[in-house]
Amino acid sequence: MTFDDLALSAIYLLASFLLFWIGKLVYDLTTPTYQVKEELVEKDNTALAVALVGYYFGLVLAIGGVMAGDSRGLEEDLIDIAIYGPLTIILLNISRLINDRLVLRKFNVRDELIRDQNVGTGAVVFASYIATGLVINGAVSGVALLDTTGTVISVVVFWALSQLGLVIADLIYGAITSYDVHEQIEKDNVAAGIAFGGVLIGIGNILRHAASGDLISWTLSLQEFGLELIAGLILLPIIRFLSDKVLLPGRSLTDEIVNQEKPNVGAAFIEAFSYIGASFLIVWSL
């Protein structure tokens, strides 16, 4: 690596840190009803800390989609960063509103995080940010080859479709579990929140793969995206069944997570891992 390469890397790294700082500033400005520093330092709010780490992680993943790939020259790269960097921040923050209203629709997310310090809710919010960051990472990584000015449109379209996919995954997961996921999370069941968070990250990873790549044809790209989404949703109940039989033989995930006095957080991590791990195996097989 030459000195010039190091200098360029330093410029890109500085641009990344600048985008991250802007993303943090946007989060602070869009959550005026509470002070992050006060909640974390003075009130030791673990639930908000977990959710905030998810936002930061999702932000890094989203920015990574902008920064990754072959260089087109410093000037062109900086133009791309100036366009797509703020776009990723905007989409990530809009996703927060969508997830609050649709994915965690049965209760007030802010109250659960701030008033009740519900770590289970924090785990789901953490996962929703990461899932969205993964999707944005995939969508931003390609270009619209038929019309380079349409890349912004393609990013927004695949992001919107992915948000719909996460909502559908929520509905399917609720249908295949014998308990009310939202009710358990609202009851401060951390295990239920962790298990559900694994679903969101797993689906988000599949959607990242589905949204990645250059846009050669809208018809072809949307068809491939739809097929990968359907495959992930179909495999969701199968993965849960296999988790019971293979990863926790002789035990029931439902019993471990909701049907005992102290929910088994370890079992929840096993279930969450099964979805995330399976998502990587799925995308590597596609």
Topology overview:
Layout: H1 3-29, H2 36-42, H3 46-67, H4 74-103, H5 109-115, H6 119-141, H7 151-176, H8 181-186, H9 190-211, H10 218-247, H11 253-257, H12 265-285
Summary tags:
globular, mainly alpha, single chain, 286 residues
What does this structure look like?
The protein has 12 helices and no strands. The protein is an all-alpha fold and 286 residues long.
In short:
With 286 residues, the protein is mostly helical.
Distance separating the two termini: 34 Å
From the spread of the alpha carbons, the general shape counts as globular
Helix and strand composition category:
mainly alpha
The largest sheet, given as strand count, sense and whether it forms a barrel, is: none
Roughly what fraction of the amino acids lie in strands?
under 5%
- Please tally the helical runs, counting DSSP H or I stretches of 4 or more residues: 12
- Percent helix: over 70%
Summarize model confidence as the mean pLDDT: 86
Query: What gyration radius follows from the Cα positions, in whole Å?
Result: 20 Å
Low-confidence stretches: 144-149
Q: Provide the succession of SSEs.
A: HHHHHHHHHHHH
Number of strands: 0
